[in-house]
Amino acid sequence: MEPTKIKIADIRVPANRRRLDPAWVATLMADMQTGNDHMVPIEVVPDTAEGFKYRLIFGGHRLAAVTGIGRNEIAAFVKDPKEVATETQIRKREIAENLIRRQLSVLDRAKDIADWRDIYDAEHGTGKVGRKKARPAEITEDDELSASFALNFSEAAQAVLGISRRSVFHALKIATIPEPIRQAISLHAVANSQTDLLQLAAETPERQTAIAAMLTAEPAEAATVADAIALLDKVTPPAKQPGWQKLAGDFARLKDSDQDRFFALHEAAIQRWLKGRKS
Question: pTM value?
Fold first, then answer.
């Protein structure tokens, strides 16, 4: 399919799109202003809403960047309505592109995986839908359905997208964080920390709201979810484990062959350390 130039004013952006990252939009704008016009076209579908000709499927950051530098048109793939005839098909297309491009935070990726599973269950009748509102306890009861969902991908797709049984479980737990809180923390550092997000998901909605407020306050009252929980509970924050200590624990659990591979990859650092011990 060849892309075509369409007017930006003719494109409708659905209201439920994920929050745009201003830093990423600014990066794209700067790239385009230096003469790089090789950006992947956005995808749209013909729209019947009054005042518009197209509806955006994906490419929100690119659309915002092109608009930001003052252009009136953008390159787009106009999809056949038969390919995306329903909201479900449009959402599946958006999720697939997001996961493949790997330009998602841990938080956004979890939401997309959870949405895909809802769609999969609705299409195959394999379980309850609406897991966006489920609590972690309910997710635990559905472990076998999570495994079935993960295994419906090919091994290659699982390797590329990271859709393993374990990642599905984690994604579903993270996706239980209510939408307003997801929006509030979407540009915070914790949005890209699985540890922080799993801790947040395990809290009650009321405590999640309080934690998000601490993280996003100006100035911030807490840097991590663990720090915010400690403040709420009026206890001393847990000591942060040094990076080397976690690595040492992981290394000790590796098979001999995997330890040998590690040594080979880090031979220069090991030789430097040995030389220092001899001097």
Answer: 0.56
